[in-house]
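Appendix B, record 7
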Amino acid sequence: MGLPSHCLPVILATLSFVSLSSLRAEDSLKADLDLFITLPGAYSLTPEDLERRFEQGNWTRNPYFKWLTEDRSRAIFQRKDLDNLKVELSLLGGTVPIEEMIVDFEKGILMGVTISIFNRGDGGSIELDDFDRRFKTMGKHIGQQLHVSPTRREARPTQGMLTKGFIWISARGKAVLEHNHEAPGNTEFLRMRLARRDAGGVYEAAMQDRPGASVKLSQLPGKVERRGDEVFIKGIPMVDQGAKGYCVVASAQRIFEYYGISCDMHQLAQIAGSDPDRGTSSLAINEELGAIDHLFKTRFTCLAVRDRNGLVELLEGKYVGPAIPEASFHSMIRKSIDAGIPLLWSLEVGLFPENPPLQEQTSGGHMRMIIGYNTKAGQIIFSDSWGAGHEFKTMDANDAYRATHGLFVMKPTTR
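Structure tokens (predicted):
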């Protein structure tokens, strides 16, 4: 049932701000991303601006950033430390190193950015004085940009508020600078979000004092689209798990964002005890997410897991009952999709054909999201957390049943 380290995409994109044609492969590149956090100029940036400012040059793929969606509504910059290329990302004139930055656009204009100033999965560890310096430097910058003093956010773990830090809200925008409540003594992540004042979704959720979904259960059927014989959920945000065995928590982050819950894969990795080098076992996810789901006003349910007898129920960590018939498996999927609720789907990839053909990972355990179905064609519709081009994919429904390790659902409890 494990999802091991080969649950990794092949990462080809790297980042830089310098002329690519003059670089040798072993050079170290530096990218200062201040333009995204300098107001009001950041608000005028468009997807076209990104492509003009960060041209592909002679590289096979754009080395500056990667689009996470084909409609160019979300892009990601990621620090790289490869044998033949090292790329450093930083803010404030190179004084604050960061791990990654997600840039969101809506209707062609910049809506906001989410910045991983540090996370354990990418950075390993951070010294206390370095954490303190990054935290204070970024906090001072946000205050200067938004022209307002911050409000302190205190952690309340028993009530689901698992981060602490500061919030800024003014006519110029809104921001949050936060970290796991055990930091700085035991730092898992240091995260910053900066957005327009009217930005919704995860940006609005990040400003709330109480955790939980901002989308009600009764609203989710309105997210379902029917196109010919295809029935699928639209509007599920895309993330890129990067070169880590984070396919489970990356998929969970996408579901949380879809529900309007501010919790990213690095925070979920801490909660679930994920090891970035070996992935997360399905049994561990069942236990950990099942234990914390109520904190986010959601309910996590394991629908089926595979043992030697086939797909069965999992109760109190034990495989129980007879094999779940294939017809029941497909019925579970249709019922959940019709309700606007995507499914977490762990499986053995590479056993059966899929469309488009698999490229990132040829075999091994992996987690995807089932987002739809086509009964007439006998297909399921799924999505991988690997960025643009992986939003909408299909597989024969019978093959999907045979490849399945586990099927899980997480849904909001607020009706």
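Remarks on this record: The two ends are 33 Å apart (CA to CA). The chain is about 20% helix and 30% strand.
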